[in-house]
Amino acid sequence: MACLAAYDIASNFALPDELSLYTFGAPRVGNAAFARRLDARVRQHFRVVNDGDLIAGLPQFLGTYRHAGCKVVTDSEKFGTFIVEPTIVENTFGIKASTLITVHPLREYRECLEACLGDEDLQEYMAKGYAMAHAVDSCQPLTPPRVLPDWLKERRKRSLQEP
Fold first, then answer.
1. Residue span of the signal peptide, if any (predicted)?
2. Of 20, 99, 122, 147, which has the most beta carbons under 10 Å away?
């Protein structure tokens, strides 16, 4: 529903700022043509998926459905790792098959994302009442090739440097 609403808003309204879309555990919504159009109109679209989430992999057997947006896979075991735009190798060998319904509840998404935050980030996150306004405020539009927002680049850099 969020993808359809964002597409409709981006298509029919003159907005002062670029529209951002974050989805959590969303199933595939449309075909390849719709995915391309959504990506063109809502260039700042992050599709957060808990590793192994069954719902995010649906529908499985109807080959015409495609995901849109920048895929962000969080570690469903809450070790605090995530992968942005996984490669073919990461998708094939590093990510669980979409078979777990237990990692789909929003509570699980919140806990997996919280595990990705460092101590300072977690304190700021808690101080804002679970609002990640700092992430949204500092995002930059994604243009092909996709450019990650500064807040995500910094977080990713720190994750790679930490033991």
1. none
2. 20
Give the Å distances, CA to CA, from 118 to 47, 76, 79, 91, 156. Answer: 21, 17, 12, 25, 11
In this prediction the pTM is 0.70
Identify the bridge partners of residue 20 per DSSP, sorted by sequence position: 44
Question: In 3-state terms, what secondary structure has residue 70?
Answer: strand
Specify the number of domains making up the chain. Answer: 2
Domain range for 126? 118-162
Closest Cα to residue 25, out of 112, 136, 154? 112
State the burial class of residue 69 (Cβ atoms within 10 Å of its Cβ: 0-12, 13-18, 19+): buried
Paired tokens of 96: 């669980």
Q: What is the CATH number of the domain that holds 85?
A: 3.40.50.1820
